[in-house]
Design a protein that fits this description.
alpha+beta, 7-stranded antiparallel sheet, globular, 167 residues
Amino acid sequence: MGTTTGRGGLMKPATLDDAAEVIIPAELLLAYEAASYWIELPSGTITLKIGEQFDPPPGNEPYSRLAVVTAFNPFSRLMSQVENEAHQADLIEAVEAAGLEWFPAAGVDPTGDWEPEPSLGVLDPSDEQLDAWMERFGQNAVVVANAGEATRLGFHPRHAARLAMSG
C-alpha cells in the first residue's frame, strides 16, 4: 500500500493495489456493531445503532437516507490528529462538491476503549458515493440508515465483493 503527499505535505490515506482485499478482523467488526453513532441534526441529536430501525425525526428537511462517514484513521491505522483533520477536511470538500448536506457526527465505543471518532452525518448519499469515499479515504465501513429499515454497516467495496464471493 502506498501513500501520497496531500495538503501541507501530509500523507494521504493509503490506497489498495488492484489485487488487495479489505479484511476486517472479527473483533473490529464486533466493535463497529456495538458502537453508537450520533448525528447533530437541526432538530436535535439522534443516535443510530446497527440493527435498529431508523425513522427520520420530524422537523428536518425530508430525506430518506442518512450515512455516517469518516476519514479518520484509514483502515483502522492510528494517524496523528493533524493528519486526521486534513483527511476529514478533504472528505468535507468531497461531500460538499457532491452537493450533499452533512452534519457533525461521531462513532462512540460503549466500552470507552477508544475515543469518539469525528464523522459526518451525510443526508441522502448514493451507494456509489459511499463506495467512492471509502476507497478514497481508506475506510473499512460506513453506517447506513435507510428510512423504515434496520441501520447497517456498508462495507468497503473490496470487502463487500469478498463477502459476496464467499457466499
